[in-house]
Design goal:
Blueprint: H1 2-33, H2 38-61, H3 70-98, H4 103-126
Membrane topology: Multi-pass membrane protein
Main location: membrane
Pfam families: GtrA_DPMS_TM
């Protein structure tokens, strides 16, 4: 059981690092090269990385519930991600505007908190705790 959880955390970390690179890069490019307001850039970059994260997470990291349709699984994932986006935005706003931390550093801090939210909520609400399912496009 602990070995399975450790492997799952490693896989989640790999997907998370790639999603973070996507998120962080898009945030930087939109803000610094296209002068998009950092909170709008953060929302756009978060959304794009979440799409990547959904496909990788549900096929490779989490054992999706058999009794749930893909559309419903996606809706739950999106709902949980929207809450994660809210956490991200509030943290960035506070860290940048109130505490005066550079927005790229603030993004790293916010991402760490959202990462914990994502792992716990996806494990609770999206994973089949009974047995392993092979990823299909049901």
């Amino acid at each position: 059981m602990m070995k399975k959880l450790a492997l799952q955390i490693i896989k989640f970390g790999i997907v998370g690092v790639i999603a973070f690179i996507i998120d962080y890069s898009i945030l930087f490019i939109l803000t610094d090269f296209f002068s998009v307001y950092y909170l709008l850039s953060a929302a756009i970059s978060f959304t794009i990385s979440t799409i990547f994260n959904y496909f990788c997470s549900m096929c490779w990291v989490f054992e999706g519930k058999k009794n749930i349709k893909k559309r419903n699984e996606l809706m739950i994932f999106i709902f949980l991600s929207v809450i994660g986006l809210g956490i991200n935005q509030v943290m960035m706003l506070i860290l940048v505007e109130q505490i005066k931390i550079f927005y790229m550093i603030s993004k790293i801090i916010a991402t760490c908190v959202v990462m914990i939210w994502n792992f716990i909520t996806r494990k609770l609400f999206l994973e089949d705790h009974k047995k392993r399912r092979i990823c299909t496009n049901e």
